[in-house]
Amino acid sequence: MALITLLWLGVWSSLFTDIGFLLSPNLLSNPLLFFQGVRSIFPLIACFICMLILASSTGKIILYKNTLGFFFLYCFIGLLSSLFMSPDTGVALYWGFLYLSPLLVVWVAQQKMNTLGVLSRIIKINYFIVFLIFATFIPQTIDMVRGRVPFTQFFNLPFGLGEVRINGVGRYALIVGIVCFVRFNFARKKTRLLWVSILGMALLMMAYTRSRTTLLGLGVVSLLFAYIQKLDWRIFFAGPVAAYVLWLSGYKWRAQQHIEKLLNLTGREYTWQRGVEQVSRSPVFGWGFHADRLLLNSEHMHNSYLHAAIHSGIIGALLFFAGILSIWVLIMKRGLLKNLKYLKREDKPYLLESVFLVGYFTSRSFFESTAAFYGVDLLIYLPAVAYIIFWLYANPDFSRHESQEIAHNAV
């Protein structure tokens, strides 16, 4: 468990930095540059350690035909493309192995006897990091609420670590909101006030970012909650709150009460067109990792499937799409959404949060490059998916038992 913790912290270490800092001539004389440069290689170290563990493993290594397996194959093709097709092989391989590192850590986690316990530890680390980053945005959010600073497209990170666009800030706020909402429903009375207070700040931050992908995610999560809980009394409280945030932030503030502004793609369509042109030049295998930045003048694709295609071609994009789709096929096939309400186990909060997070990131994948490259989305999405997969594998009779309980309660 301790090793997995260190490996996962290593995977996170390259956030808000990259290996370019190691090439700075002022690396040794500037402590911040040195810190940024050194931590950029920690995911590669974690990747190498995982390879050693898997190579020496005596147990059976299983590459399941689900999201994890499809993502691994997508990454494998991307690494080959990075080696043979990329305009900058070194940069492409660096980002390719960054992408591989969380996949391998999750793969190592599945070798443990208590896989769900190990995955829950990884998820806790994710929550801690997200809550910490979320906390750094609170002062700026409060200043915006009080009118001290105008609305801005960027929020500042502490210690000169850079800036985060409002879509990223909204992502952190929604993840925090999901966790707080679920934990509020399962917490003791003494801690409920804490959870609801943080939830209120998360909703406030979501509203003031005016991020449409975040608001879309909030709508998707709300619908999932309504479907799972059915006619639960909490819907009559949570539903109007979510609807008000969507109306205020999305329609009134962002769209200025003009629905066509809400549907505007803000230039994404031009980036998509240029991306398609690059994919057409190498349709089978793509151009390797980081190709959007290398070929599109540092632009971001803002679409997971086009991002996967420019990395790994049509083959890789199909594998990536299969990965996104496969988790929903498994969820529907096993009746998880239908029967989750009736589950009475202590791991239910993790399962609920994972379903909500998968729902959010699936909706986000159409307008951001969710899980198609190394980044926060991938590091949050993978453990959530893995938790659902291995929980269902560990409970093969879940649907039958829960259905029997429902029928018994109805009688």
Describe the structure.
This protein is mostly helical. It has one domain. It has a two-stranded antiparallel sheet with strand order 1-2. Helix 5 packs parallel to helix 17 and helix 8 runs parallel beside helix 10. The longest helix is centred in the first third of the chain and has 31 residues.
Summarize the SSE layout with pairings.
Layout: H1 2-12, H2 31-39, H3 42-56, H4 67-84, H5 89-109, H6 115-145, E1 154-156, E2 163-165, H7 166-186, H8 189-209, H9 212-229, H10 235-254, H11 259-263, H12 268-281, H13 291-295, H14 304-333, H15 336-339, H16 348-364, H17 376-394, H18 398-410
Antiparallel strand pairs: 1-2
Helix pairs in contact: 1-3, 1-5, 1-6, 3-5, 4-5, 4-14, 5-17, 6-7, 6-8, 6-17, 7-8, 7-9, 7-16, 8-10, 9-10, 9-16, 12-14, 16-17
Which short descriptors sum up this protein?
single chain; 411 residues; mainly alpha; 71% helix; disordered C terminus
Give a quick rundown of the structure.
Helix content is 71%, strand content 1%. It has 411 residues and is mostly helical.
Arithmetic mean of pLDDT: 88
Distance between the termini: 44 Å
Number of domains: 1
Order of helices and strands: HHHHHHEEHHHHHHHHHHHH
Largest sheet: 2 strands, antiparallel
Strand tally is 2
Strand order of the largest sheet: 1-2
Separate helix tally: 18
Contiguous uncertain segments of 5+ residues: 403-411
Give the strand content: under 5%
Structural class: mainly alpha
Helical coverage, percent range: over 70%
Shape: globular
Multimeric state = single chain
